[in-house]
Amino acid sequence: MGKVTATRTPLFFQSKLLCISVLYLFTTLFLAFYRSVSPTTCLFRSSPSDPIQSPLFYYPSSYGEHKYAITTHRHSCSSPVFFSDYGMVVGEIHNLCTNSSAFLPALRYLQGKADTFGGNFETQKRFSYFNYSNDEIKVPCGFLKEFPVSDSDRIAMESCNGVVVVSAIFNDHDKIRQPVGLGSQTLVDTCFFMFIDDITLQGLYEHKLIPQNLPDYKVGVWRIVKVFSEKLYENPAMNGVIPKYLVHRLFPHSKFSIWIDAKLQLMVDPLLLIHSLVVSKDVDMAISKHPYYVHTMEEAMATARWKKWSDIDGLTQQMETYCKNGLKPWTTDKLPYTTGK
Fold first, then answer.
1. Where are the alpha helices (DSSP H) in 215-311?
2. Can you tell me the distance from the alpha carbon of 263 to that of 290, in angstroms, rounded to the nearest whole number?
3. Which is more confidently placed, 264 or 44?
4. What is the residue-averaged pLDDT of the chain?
5. How far apart are CA 90 and CA 186, in angstroms?
6. DSSP code for 33
7. pLDDT at position 39, please?
8. What is the pLDDT of residue 47?
9. Does the pTM exceed 0.85?
């Protein structure tokens, strides 16, 4: 009879625990190496619907060192809104924007000439327009004095017919911050406009962020719109609230809008933000909660304390007018509204 030779498994492979440990070690080393050499900091993000990770604009190191901001360390990879829904969201918002009947009826606005942009209506006169029931009534909503921007900027604003993201910097108080985590289609369907005054524009010139003597400016995704503020109000803060509250007048053909303070950075794709907070909730508006205050009076006192508004007497008079016309401190009786503004 022939001999049967038994082959033995090497001792190294006889331990399952050892094999698993070695596999885990090599996998960890591979992932660490991939992360270190990857141009993005997200692992295995290759779908066209995934967030854009490359910087949208490179700033000089000296720009904005003296500016203040509410910072965040959240990366777009950990966006609170799931990017797996991005394709569906883009399609749904696009269909809404092309269906103009979904946004009717439209308001009619009072036209005319006045010494001031808002018209200086008495409080009770403004109150008379609040109970809007007649489509033929024209309501006062600013623009009784021309909003002074260039013709090319005005054409671009009127041509934005989908989603618009708006911000403003007056008196060079903040710096331009690029949004993070935009989807590839968002740059096609969304307009980004930053309103500035001449003082802010001079700062951009000094840091060489934009060339001088050009009709149009752009910094990253933001189209820069210079407002000739000397033709509006003396106080830069007064001019800054015009694009904040009257986006629907500045962009008459846009269907959705987002206002973001210049001290903040947009960390979520605007299409996902609008869909999650407005479209899916079937509401007209979503308002962010103030990170520190729950009542207008608290904000007014902070504004005076930190000298964000130089006219303290005017601020006092404004708050007294609010209280005279019914402003009350916030209580739980105002829920579901979480502020008293």
1. 236-245, 247-250, 270-274, 296-305
2. 13
3. 264
4. 82
5. 8
6. H
7. 47
8. 55
9. no
C-alpha distances (whole Å) from 41 to each of 44, 187, 312 are 9, 21, 47
Cis peptide bond prior to 105, omega within 30° of 0:
yes
pLDDT band at 257 (very low <50, low <70, confident <90, very high): very high
Whether 22 has a pLDDT exceeding 80, the answer reads: no
Q: How far is CA 227 from CA 15, 35, 182, 205, in A?
A: 73, 44, 27, 16
Half-sphere exposure of 202 (CA within 13 A, CB side): 7
For helices 296-305 and 312-324, what crossing angle results, to 10°?
170
At 307, list the tokens: 């000298």
- Phi–psi pair at 167, nearest 5 degrees: -145, 175
Instruction: For residue 308, give the nearest of 90, 68, 95 by alpha carbon.
Output: 68
Instruction: Copy the structure tokens of residue 223.
Output: 């189209």
- Number of alpha carbons in the 13 Å side-chain half-sphere of residue 127: 6
Write the Ramachandran bin of 64: left for phi over 0, alpha for psi from -120 to 50, otherwise beta.
left
Q: Which of 176, 195, 190 is nearest to 93 (CA)?
A: 190
- How far apart CA 28 and CA 243 sit, in angstroms, is 50
